[in-house]
């Protein structure tokens, strides 16, 4: 017995990315596009949604700019050996650590640059403000570099070392709860070495799964 299931996508539906909505249709008013997206309008005709939560004027190009501005951290190989092991790759076991890194990276980008920040690959045309933001962006990426150095407080090497206190080691599967606590410890330790992180903390809820 087999079941043929085909995923259907509507070209008229908006695309959502981390709280922002992008709609392909450009010939409609924001109110009509919002109705198509499932949002309500109040009696005055104004859309009852945060101003930056839906981007009718950007369309799919806006979605692409938003998407490529997110930091992607995934499996790697041939990095320095992880402490207490022979591993030089996290392929096959580091998925939750990488997911945690990306979640933290997104939080840091929003904190230091704002949700509306977009990466600009044209360095030559950047304004002074954009150049400053680019340096901040590069600094955030460097914090996650796969190397056992103080300049990378959120590297997989640091996270694996912190995991040892919870009985985890390189090659083990890390669950969501253990990664949450590891990230909390990493941010706390990072604040001792990096001034930008001094007043930041990761809150881990204790009363949920």
From TrEMBL:
InterPro entries: Papain-like_cys_pep_sf, Peptidase_C54, Peptidase_C54_cat. Belongs to the peptidase C54 family. Keywords: Autophagy, Cytoplasm, Hydrolase, Protease, Protein transport, Thiol protease, Transport. Its main location: cytoplasm. It comes from Bracon brevicornis. Residues 61-208 form the Peptidase C54 catalytic domain. GO terms for cellular component: cytoplasm. Pfam families: Peptidase_C54. It catalyses: [protein]-C-terminal L-amino acid-glycyl-phosphatidylethanolamide + H2O = [protein]-C-terminal L-amino acid-glycine + a 1,2-diacyl-sn-glycero-3-phosphoethanolamine. Residues 22-43 are annotated as: Disordered. Residues 24-34 have a biased composition (Basic and acidic residues). This is Cysteine protease. GO terms for biological process: aggrephagy; autophagosome assembly; mitophagy; piecemeal microautophagy of the nucleus; protein processing; protein transport. GO terms for molecular function: cysteine-type endopeptidase activity; protein-phosphatidylethanolamide deconjugating activity. Its EC number is 3.4.22.-. The lineage of its organism: Eukaryota, Metazoa, Ecdysozoa, Arthropoda, Hexapoda. Cysteine protease that plays a key role in autophagy by mediating both proteolytic activation and delipidation of ATG8 family proteins. It is found in: Cytoplasm.
């Amino acid at each position: 017995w087999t079941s043929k299931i085909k995923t259907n996508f509507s070209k008229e539906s908006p695309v959502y990315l981390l709280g922002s909505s992008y709609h392909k249709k450009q010939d409609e008013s924001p109110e009509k596009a919002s109705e198509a997206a499932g949002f309500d309008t109040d009696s005055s005709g104004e859309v009852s949604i945060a101003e930056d939560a839906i981007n009718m004027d950007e369309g799919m190009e806006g979605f692409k700019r938003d998407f490529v501005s997110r930091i992607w951290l995934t499996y790697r190989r041939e990095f320095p050996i992880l402490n207490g092991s022979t591993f030089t790759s996290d392929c096959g076991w580091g998925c939750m650590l990488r997911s945690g890194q990306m979640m933290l990276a997104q939080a840091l980008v929003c904190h230091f640059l704002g949700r509306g920040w977009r990466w600009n690959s044209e360095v030559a045309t950047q304004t002074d403000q954009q150049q400053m933001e680019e340096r901040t962006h590069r600094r955030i990426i460097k914090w996650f570099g796969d190397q056992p150095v103080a300049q990378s407080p959120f590297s997989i090497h640091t996270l694996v070392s912190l995991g040892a206190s919870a009985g985890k080691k390189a090659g083990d599967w890390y669950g969501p709860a253990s990664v949450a606590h590891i990230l909390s410890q990493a941010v706390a330790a990072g604040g001792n070495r990096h001034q930008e992180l001094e007043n930041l903390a990761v809150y881990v809820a204790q009363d949920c799964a």
